[in-house]
C-alpha cells in the first residue's frame, strides 16, 4: 500500500525546505494543501511549488479558522476520508504544512481520523520560532534555561504564568491579541525583552524589537509571533 505523508515545509523561504521534503514533494501523485480562507492563495503551496512535479494533482482544501470544534471536525473528517480513498487507490499522497507537522498543525488532527491501516509518515520541518530566533540572532535557550511555546489565544493568565515560570517564551499568532499581550508585558516589565517577527524568512519579513513604542492597535499580519527572552545574553 502507498503512504500518506505529512510534510513540514518550513517558515516561508522555499530554500529552507529540507532536502528530504523537497525530494518527496517531487514524487507525490496527489498533494493536499491547506487554505485558511476560501478563495485565498495558499502560502504553503507557494513555498512548495519549486519542488513539485508537473504531473502532481493538487487538492486545495479549506480548513476553517474557527474555535468551534464541531465545525472544524466536520471538515477534518471529510478530508481524511478523501485522503484515505486516494491511498486505497494506490496513490502517494502528501499534506504540506507550514513549519513542522507536529507543532500546531492541522495534519496532527487529520491523523486521528484516518483508518489505522493507512500507512503514514511525518517529515519534520523548520519551525517559525526557530527561524525567528535565527533572524534575531538570539538563542532560544541556553544552559539550564527553559522554553515555553504558547498561542496568544491561550489567554492572559496562562501567558502570565508561563512568563513567570520560564526564562524564554514564544507567543504564537499574537496579532489578534496584541493589545492585551503588550499590556501584560508592561505589567511584568518585559517590553524591552520582547521582539515581534512577521513572515519570518520571507521577503516581506518585518522585525519589531522596540515594543515600548508599538501601537497596541497596529495592523500586523496573522503570521506574527513574539519571542520574550528574560535573561540577558551576557
Using the alpha-carbon principal axes, give the shape. elongated
Order of helices and strands: EHEHEHEHEHEHEHEEE
Instruction: Quote the beta fraction.
Output: 15-25%
Query: Largest sheet, order of strands side by side?
Result: 3-2-4-1-5
Rg, nearest Å: 19 Å
What percent of the residues sit in helical stretches (DSSP H or I)? 25-40%
SSE class: alpha/beta
- End-to-end CA span: 54 Å
Per DSSP, the total helix count is: 7
Number of DSSP E strands: 10
Poorly predicted runs of 5 or more residues: none
Largest sheet: 5 strands, parallel
Task: Determine the mean pLDDT.
Answer: 92
Describe this structure in words.
The protein has 234 residues and is of the alpha/beta class. The protein has 7 helices and 10 strands. A hairpin with a 7-residue loop joins β8 and β9. The model has no long low-confidence stretch (mean pLDDT 92).
Helix-strand blueprint:
Blueprint: E1 4-8, H1 19-25, E2 30-35, H2 43-48, E3 57-62, H3 69-88, E4 93-97, H4 106-113, E5 120-123, H5 128-136, E6 147-151, H6 156-165, E7 168-172, H7 178-187, E8 194-198, E9 206-208, E10 224-229
Parallel strand pairs: 1-4, 1-5, 2-3, 2-4, 6-7
Antiparallel strand pairs: 7-10, 8-9, 8-10
Helix pairs in contact: 3-4
